[in-house]
Design a protein that fits this description.
212 residues, mainly beta, Multidrug-efflux Transporter 1 Regulator Bmrr, Chain A, two-stranded parallel ribbon, Reg_factor_effector_dom_sf, SOUL heme-binding family protein, SOUL_heme-bd
Length: 212
């Protein structure tokens, strides 16, 4: 997913820029196939909100033998290449989950307990995979599905995407979109293109809001 110097050397989510403003873009993302896992981050031994990463990394074979089965085989797995960026999505109890193209997407869904959120993390698989040829997960907690095309307003920024900075960028983007006449239709998605060892000022991050 990148190096300490911030170079992005993997396939990235496919989209078309349909409008470019002074500080944001409107993008139309292509349909994609994703692998996902949903979990309670407080129950993860490591990683917290990002605790599902290793589960999905095992599915694609990023850290050893792939934990999947080819459609035409009952035993043989297939290594699947990583893509970028990593996405994080938080949702309120009333909102609908949003899906994104990425190797990883994290969606937080509030349960009846307002203090507890479930996280859905997604890897968007390389663009040559379809529901017909995608390897099947061995781990029952991992699911594979197809997501449709979708439109987002996007702002790009560097640095460490901590909660304070992310919320600042979300509010900035929301105001820019509303001033531009766009209707925001859901919660934000945070995209992170680089691994944690990348120098902070060389990291590429994006905040995204679904729009009509």
């Amino acid at each position: 997913m990148g190096t300490v110097l911030g170079r992005i050397g993997v396939e990235t989510a496919k989209y078309e820029v349909i409008f470019k403003g002074s500080d944001y873009e409107i993008r139309e993302y292509q349909p994609s196939v994703v692998a996902e896992v949903t979990y309670d981050p407080t129950q993860m031994k490591k990683g917290g909100k990002d605790g599902g990463f290793m589960i999905l990394a095992n599915y694609i074979g990023a850290v050893g033998n792939p934990c999947n089965i080819k459609p035409e085989s009952q035993i043989e797995g297939e290594k699947i290449a990583m893509t970028a960026p990593v996405f994080t999505h938080e949702s309120s109890p009333q909102s609908q989950p949003i899906v994104m193209t990425a190797p990883v997407m994290t969606a937080e869904q509030t349960t009846d307990d307002e203090s507890k959120k479930l996280v859905t993390m997604q890897f968007v698989l390389p663009s040559d995979y379809t529901m017909e040829n995608v390897p099947r997960p061995i781990d029952p907690s991992v699911s594979v599905k197809e997501v449709p095309a979708r439109k987002y307003g996007v702002v790009t920024f560097s640095g460490v995407a901590d909660e304070a900075l992310v919320q600042t960028m979300v509010q900035k983007l929301r105001k820019s979109l509303e001033d531009g006449g766009y209707q925001v239709t859901g919660d934000y998605v945070l995209g992170r293109y680089n691994p944690p060892w990348t120098l902070p000022f060389l990291r590429t991050n994006e905040v995204m809001l679904p729009v009509e």
